[in-house]
Batch of 4 targets.
Target 1
Amino acid sequence: MSVTSTSNFVQAIIDEDIANGAKDIYTRFPPEPNGYLHVGHAKSICLNFGLAQRNNGRCNLRFDDTNPVKEDTEYVDSIKQDVEWLGFKWEGEERYASDYFHTFYECAVQLIKDGKAFVCDLNAEEMREYRGTLTEPGKNSPYRDRSVEENLALFEAMKNGEFADGAKVLRAKIDMASPNINMRDPIIYRIAKAHHHRTGDEWCIYPMYDFAHPISDAIEGISHSVCTLEFEDHRPLYDWVLDNLMEFAKFPSRPHQYEFARLELNNTITSKRKLKKLVDEGIVDGWDDPRMPTISGMRRRGYTPEAIRNFCDMIGVSKSNSRVEFAMLEYCLREDLNQNARRAMVVLDPLKITITNYPEGQVEWLDAEINPNQPELGSYQIPFSREIYIEREDFKEEANNKFFRLKPGKEVRLKHAYIIQCDEVVKDADGNIIELKCSYDPTTRSGMENANRKVKGTLHWVEASTAVDAEVHMLDFLLLPEQGEGDFMEYLNPESLVVLKGCKTTPDMKEAKAGDKFQFLRTGYFCVDSRYSTPEHLVFNQTVSLKDSK
Ligand code: ATP
Ligand code: MG
C-alpha cells in the first residue's frame, strides 16, 4: 500500500491540530450507493485514506444511504471492491448511515424539544416562495411557531406513516433572514414511503444529507470531515447541527468539515447521473465498460491502482476548481505500464509474407524479452518460419525516404529475428496487395555474425502457422473534445470503440488471463478483457497509446 507523499492544505490543518494536542486523526469516505465510483471519487479516496495513513490515523468507509429511492446493494458491493482495488483498507467493517436512523430520529426529537425544529406544511412551491433569494431575506413559515407538543405529535405521526409523501417536513428553526440560504430553516427530515435497501419498510421518513452527515461523522468519532467545495456554504449548517446536539448526544468527537476542489477531467464525465444514463440507454455495455471513467471501467481497461494513486498525488489537493488534462492520467499510466507490462507481438491488420529462401516446414523458436526494463524477468519463446504476418501499414509500394518500414527492394529487421528484404508484391485481380515475397539474411539473428548489421526500420511480426486470432478493441474518449452547451448526449464520440477482428498474435498468448496487461510492441498498451475474452477467442482492450498523440 502506498502512502501519498505530497503534502496538502488539509495535512497542514492536521499538522496544526496535532501540534495543539489532537491525537486521533480519523477521516471517512462517504459515497452514496447510487452508482459506481468514478475517477473523481478516486481523488477523494486517495485524500481521505491517504491522510489517515500518513497520520497514523483511521479512515472509515461509510455508505451515505439516506435516499432510499436511488440506492442499491449492487452499488454497495462495487464500491467496496473499488476501494480495495485502489489499495486501501477501511477501519473495521464498512458503515452505513442507515444504521444510525434511530439516532438521527432521536436527535430530531431533541431539536424539537429544544424549540429548534418544527413541522412545516408548506408545499415545495410555497417553500420556494418563502425562502427568499440571494439578495432578499426569506419569510417565516406560518407553521414556525407551533408548540413543542404539537411538533412532537406531528413528527411522530410523520414517522408512523400518517401523511403522504411531501405533505409535511421537519425543518430546523434557524434564521429566515440569514445571508446563507442553507441556514433559512433548512429541511432536515422528509417523508418518503419507499423501500430502503437495508432497512426495508421500517422507515417512511428519511433525514436530509445536511442533517445526517454531521451526526454520522460525530457518531463515528471522525475528526476531519473532508468534502468537495460545493458544500462550503453548508458548513455553517454542519456546525449548527453539531453545536446543538453535542451535549445531548455525547458524541465521541466534534468533527469539522473541510472542503477541497473536485476533480474535473477534460473529455470525460464525472457525474454519476450522466454515467448512469449511458448505462441505462445501452450506449456502453455496463458501468465497467472500458471507456467509462469509472474505477471498474478503468480496471477493465487495464489501468493500474498505482497509476491512479500517482495521478491523484500529482494533481494535488486545492481549494479552487480547475480542470485537469486527461493526458496527465495517461502519463502516470504509461510510466507504470512501461515499467511493468509484459511485451507482446500482435499484428492488428495482418499482411502475409512468405520468406522464399527459408526452408519449408522448419520452425525455430526465438527469445523475446519479457520487459527490457526488468531484464531479470528473462524472455519468452516465439516461433519463426517461412510464413509470417506483418502490419499492413508497415509496407508501402511507393514511399519517400522518410518511410523506414518495408518497401520493394528494401530491408527491415524483424524484431527478435532476422533482416528481410522485399522481393515481390503479390496482388489479387483488383490490385489489392495480398502477400509479399521476401528473402532473409540467415546471419542476422541475435548471437550471429551479422546480428548488429544496421537497417533503418524494425517491425513487429507474428509467425503464421502458429498464430492465434485476437479481437482488439481500440478505445477513445466517450465525448468529443468540442463540447458546447446543451445535452452531453449530443457530444458522444461515434468512434469511441473500434473493434478490430482477425488480429494475429503469438501462441503463448493463449495463456493470457483476464486483466493481464501487455505492451504490444510499437502499438500501445492493452489488457485482456474480463467479460468477453476466452482462451479460444482472445479479446483485448486498448489501455493507452504508446505516446501522447497531442
Ligand atoms: P455525483 O455528483 O456524481 O452524484 P457525488 O459527489 O454526489 O457524485 P458521492 O457518492 O456523494 O457522489 O461522493 C462520495 C465522495 O466523493 C464525496 O465526499 C464527494 O465529495 C467525493 N467526490 C465525488 N465526486 C468527486 C470529484 N469529482 N472529485 C473529488 N471528489 C469527489
Ligand atoms: Mg453526494
Target 2
Amino acid sequence: MTEDVPDRRYPHRHLLGIAGLGADEIESLLDLADTYVELNRRTEKKQSLLRGRTIINLFFESSTRTRTSFELAGKRLGADTINMSVDVSSIKKGETLLDTATTLNAMHPDVLVVRHPDSGAVMLLASKVNCAVINAGDGSHEHPTQALLDALTIRRRLGHIDGLTVAICGDIMHSRVARSNIHLLNTMGARVRAVAPPTLVPTGIERLGCEVFHDMREGLRDCDIVMMLRLQSERMRGSYLPSTREYFRFYGLDYDKLAAARPGALIMHPGPMNRGVEIDGTVADDITRSVILDQVELGVAVRMACLEILSANNPPAPETEVAR
Ligand code: NCD
C-alpha cells in the first residue's frame, strides 16, 4: 500500500457510524482486530506501528471503558495519546464544539476520538477538521466501535454472526449501542429483536431491521444472544417507567427469563451495568453464560484495528518548509 492510497479493506477517512458500511468492510476491521487479541495478552504489548502519530481522545461525556480502551489501543500501537475531558477543557469556559475542534486540529493530530452527548455532533466535527475522526458515541445515534467489539465477541465465541438471533433488551430508545448493533447485525446476516417496554422503543425502529417485542420471555425465545442495555436515565426527559423495581420484575434479566433463550445463549452488556435494574448480578457474573468481560477485552483489539486503518488512510501531510 502506498502512502496516499486508502486502505482497500476500509477505504474511508473516518469511522462515524456502522450505517452504510458493507459486510466486507466490517469483516476486515474484525479480521484485523482478531490479530491484536493475542498481542494484548502478552507481557510485552507495545508495537511501533503508529510511532510519531498523535491521537486525541476528546470526551464531552463521561466514560470509563471506551476512553481507557482507546487510550490503551493508541499506546500499544506506539502513538502519542492524550485525553481531554470536558471538565478540564475550555468547553467549561464557553468555547463552542467547533472552536474546540479547529483548535485541536491546528495541533496536527492524526486521529480525534470524540464522544458527545448530542446525536450528529461528531459528524459535524468531522466535517471541520482534516484528520481522521472516530465516533466514540454521539447522543443516542451511534457507537460504532461498541458494535464492532460486540461482533468480534460473538464471532470468536460462536464462529459466525449470520443466521443468529440476537435479542437487544432494555432502553432501546436512548441507546446508541442498540442502533449501531442493529445496523451491524443486519448487515452481517443476523436476525435482530428489540425487547423493551413500549415507552422505551422509538417509533419506526422496525425500519432499521428488527422485530419488536414487549414481553421478555417472548422476545428471548430461542435466541442465541441476549444483549442487555442500561437504563440511560441521563438522557430521559420525563418519566418512562413506574419504578426500577417494577422494571427489573418485567425486563430485568434473571435465570427465569433467560430460560426462554437457547440453552447456552450468551449474555452481553456494554457496561456500565446496573445490577438489580436491567440484570441480576449473579447472571452477569455467570462465567458459563456471560461474555461481558470478553467484550471489554476485545474492545482494545477493535480500537487498535480502527486506529491502524484510519491512520493509514490519513497519512500525515507532506513535509512543508518551515521558514525559520
Ligand atoms: C455505552 C455508551 O456510553 O453508549 N457504554 C459504553 O460505551 N460501553 C452504554 C451506556 O452508557 O449504557
Target 3
Amino acid sequence: MLSCIQPTGDVHLGNYLGALRNWVAGQHENDAFHGIVDLHALTITEAPDVLGQATLQLAAMLFAVGLDPDEATIFVQSHVPEHSQLGWMMECTVSYGELTRMTQFKDKSAKRQENTSTAEFISAGLFTYPALQAADILLYDTDEVPVGEDQRQHIEITRDIAIRFNHRFGDTFVLPKAVTPKAGARVMDLQDPTSKMSKSANTDSGLVYLLDEPAAVRKKFKRAVTDSDSEVRFDRAEKPGVSNLLEILAACTGGAPEALAAGYTQYGPLKADAGEAVIELLQPIQARYHELMTDRGELQSLLRKGAGKAREVAAVTLARAQAAAGMLPA
Ligand code: TYM
C-alpha cells in the first residue's frame, strides 16, 4: 500500500476523511509506505523557506493522526532520489495527449490564471506532475492506493503508464488500484458545496483544518451553505450542502448518510451535530500534534529512517526498470 500527500498548506478535513484515516486503518495489515511529496509541491511553491517547514509540520500531523513509524514507512519524496529518476522514465512513457486530458492540470492552471499574482507562470512540472506520481506509486510495487475520489484519474493514468511500459519492455511494474472510503471520499467546501474542499480555495471559510480551534470549527459549520427549502435528505445532486454535512457526520460517527438524514427535520441541529462530531475527532489529534512539534530533531530522525527503508525498495524497482529499458548499468 502506498499513498502520498503534498506539503502545501495545512491539512484539512477532506485530506483526513478521504485519505489519512485509511492510511492509519491499513497500516497493520499492509506493507505501508507514505510519502510527503515535496517535489510535487514545487510545481506551485515559489517562495523560499516554506517547503522544509511545511514538510516537517506535515510529518508531525501524519504521526499525530496515528501513523506509527514502526508499522508504516513515512518518508520525504526528495530524500528518495529514485522518485525523480523513475519520474523521468515515466515522462517518456506517458504521452502529451494523455497529460492534456488531466483535469487537475486544467483546474490548477485555470486557477493560477485567475489570480493576477500567479497568472504568468504555469510550470512545466504542473503539466508533467502525473508522471512523477506514477513513479511514486510504481516504485513500491503498490497494489492499493488509498486516496480520495479526486485522485482516481491519477491512479488510472498510472495504470495506463505501467501497462504501456510492461508492453514495451516486458513485465516490470505491478498494476495498482485506487481504494476510496465509503463516506468522506469527496468532502466538499462548506461555503461552495459543489467544489471539493481544497487548499487552493479562494477563502478559508469553507475549509476545516485539522488544527482549527473548536470555536472556529463551530463557526464554519454554523455558516455552512445549505439551500432554501428545509428538507433534510441525502441527495448530492439536488442538495449538495446538506448531503455534504450528512456525509461528514457519517464519516465521523460511522453511520450511513441516508439513515442519519431521518434523524433531522431542520438544518440547524444537523450543522451543530456535524460540527461537534468534527471537534471531537480533532481534539486528540491536535494534542498529539502540538506535543510532537516540540521535538523537531526526533521528527527529522524518524523521516531519515523512513527514507532509508523506502530507498531499499525503490532502488530495486528502479534498477529493474532501467534494466528492462535496456540502459547500460553504471
Ligand atoms: P493532495 O495532497 O491534494 O491530497 C492528499 C490526499 O487527500 C485527499 N483529498 C480529499 N479527499 C476527500 N475529499 C477532499 N475534499 C479531498 N481533498 C484531498 C486526496 O485524494 C489525497 O488522497 N497528487 C496527490 C499527491 C500524490 C499522491 C502520489 C497520492 C503524489 N503522489 C502517489 C497517491 C499516490 C495530491 O495532490 O494529493
Target 4
Amino acid sequence: MSPNAYAQAALPKRLQHFVDGQFIDSADSFPNISPIDGSELSQVAEASKDQVDAAVRAAKRTQDGVWGSLKVSERADWLYRIADGIQARFDDFVAAEVADTGRPVSQARSLDITRGIANFRTFADLIRTANSEFYETSTADGGEFINYVTHKPLGVVGVISPWNLPLLLFTWKVAPALAMGNCVVAKPSEETPTSATLLAEVMRDIGLPPGVFNLIHGHGGNAAGEWLTQHPDIDAITFTGESKTGSAIMKAVADGVKNVSFELGGKNAAVVFADADFEAAVDGVLSSSFTNAGQVCLCSERVYVERPIFDRFVVALKAKTEALKVGSPYDEGTTTGPLISKGHREKVLSYFRLAVEEGATVVTGGGVPSFGNVCDDGAFVQPTIWTGLPDTARCVTEEIFGPVCHIAPFDAEDEVVNRVNDSAYGLAACVWTSNLTRGHRVARQIETGIVWINAWFVRDLRTPFGGSKLSGFGREGGRHSMDFYTEATNVCVRIG
Ligand code: NAD
C-alpha cells in the first residue's frame, strides 16, 4: 500500500473499553486529536472508577479459575493466535499507529507493528522452552534434599503505557504478563488509544476467554491510571512513561507493597571517538537523535564528539539533518512526522527558547516548519542541533523528548565517561569507535541499562531491558520478564 492509502483506512470513531470479553462505553469521553493536522480522529471513552473495578474483578476471577490453570503449551498457543490475529490485520494496525502518532508509514510497518507481533511470539516461545533452577543439598545429619524452583503467576497485572511507541510498548508488557499466566488490565496512553482498541478486537475475534485481557481507556492522574494503581486486587504494576509518573505510581502502590517494574525517562548520550567510522557514526547519531521525531526513550539528546573531528562532525550531521523530510506521513518519502500533540510541542518549543537563553548556538532548526497545507495545524517542529552549552545547562540535563540534540567536544576517554555518567538518568548510551577494546572498556563504565557499540536501537527481546537512576528499575526481556511476572517458589524435597 502507498503511504497515502493509509489515510483512507476506516478506523473506529468511538473507542470503548474491553472488559470481561465485551466492549463497553462510558458516559464521559474525550477527543483523540490527530497530531498531523489537528483534526478529531475519534471520541474515546473515559473509564469511571466502577469500570476500572469491573475490569480488575473480571481479571481476578478469570485468573483464578481459567487462565492461571491452563497448561503452558495452551497459553503459548493463545499467544501465537494473538500474534496471528495482529498479522491478519497488519495494515489496520499500521493505519491506527500512523493516524494517532503521525509517524512515517515505513516505521510503523517495519518497527511498531512487527515488534507488536514479535512480542507475543517471543514470550510464547520463552515459556515453551523455559527451564528452572535445581540444587542438591546435604545436611550435617546426613540428610539429602533436592531443591527446584517453580514459577507461578502473580495474579492480576496492571499495564500502563505511554504514547511514543504505542503498540510496541503496550504489547511488550501485555505479552509477557499473559504468557506467565497472569490476567491483565491495561491502559494505553490517552494520546494513542487506537491500536490498543484494535488489539482488543483481535482478542475478541480469536475467542480469548473473557477477562484474560481487559482494556480501559482514560487519563492518568485522578483517573483510570491512578485508580488502577490503587486497586487492592492488582498484584503488580508494569509501567512505561515519565520518571515523575513512576514516582507517583510508586507512592500509590506503597501501602499495598505491590510489585512494580518501571521503564522511565532518559537523557541518553552518544559518544563518538575520532577513530570511529565517520559516516557510520554520523548516520547512527542521525538515527539515534531524530528517529520518531526524537520521541523514543532511547534517543540521544547528548552527543559528545572527540575534538579532532568535532567541527567536521557538526557540519556533516547538520547536512543530513537538513535533508530529513519533515511532513505528513501520508506523503511519499517523509522521514520525520509531528510530535504527539500541540501540548508536547509547547514543551519542546519551551526548550528551544531556553537553549538560546542558556547561550546555545543553533546549528540548525529551532522553530516550527511551515507547509502551506493542513500540516500547519499539526504539531511539527524542526529537527534541531545545538552546540556551545555547558554540561550543566538545563537543555543538556533534562529530557526534552523531541528531535533535538546538543553536540559537545571532548578530549579524553575518562573525561567523557564522567560526563556521560554525570546525569540523573541511566537508560541507554551509544559508543562509536573502531577500537573495540576501548568500546568494551567504556561500555563497562557507563551507568546505563544498555550500551550499544557502533549500533543503536538493536533489541534482542531475550536480553534484559531497563534503566538505572531516574530511568527506572527492574529489567524485562527474556527470563528477566519471567522473574518479574511470576512468583518464584522454592520446593525442597527430602530424598534420603
Ligand atoms: P506519562 O508518564 O505522562 O504517561 C504514561 C502513562 O501513564 C499514560 O498512560 C498516562 O495516562 C499514565 N499516567 C499518568 N499519570 C498517572 C498516574 N498518576 N497514575 C497512573 N498512571 C498515570 O508518559 P508519556 O508522556 O506518555 O511518555 C513519555 C515518557 O515515557 C518519556 O519520559 C519517555 O522517556 C518515557 N519512556 C520510557 C521508556 C523506557 O523503556 N524506559 C520507553 C518509552 C517511553
